[in-house]
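FW: tagging you since you asked about this chain on Friday. Here's the raw sequence from the shared folder, copied in full. Didn't touch anything.
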Amino acid sequence: MTSGQSPQTTVDQLARQARHLLISFDGPIRSANAGNPPAQYINEVLPACHESGRSVAVVTAAPVAEVLAYTNAHELSTQITIVAVSIRRAVSALEAQPADCVAIASSPEDVADARTAGVPAIAYATTPDYADRLLRAGARAFVYSLMDLALKLRSAG
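HL: got it, structure written out here
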């Protein structure tokens, strides 16, 4: 983040620039809560992308078949363009440029994967300490709630 920029300003800027969202499977989509329900407000983020013409890639280290079964079972799959094993592969599969993408990451490893691919990352964090950790890993901004991201995506058009 540049000096003088607040994380919210950066989230706004990244939401405006993003034509493709590359969302980590664990955290932003499949929560760590008991039973692994979908993360709160992912059902707002995906339609916000769809309605504004943005594509969505799910990035995962889990087997693709597991991700597809999960997204089908939770009625999320119709709003997901592709499932990929890395940020770099997601960018390639979408035939996109890294600058047209934004990663939604919930782990330092996901942030590092985005940085390596040249894709800016918005951290999805549940605590201030974890947000700081993800920012130190290279995330450009953070959100504590996916609803904040959905609202930013909708206002960015």
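FW: The beta strands are 20-24, 55-59, 82-84, 101-105, 121-124, 141-143.
HL: agreed, and The first strand starts at residue 20 and ends at 24.
FW: great, closing this out.
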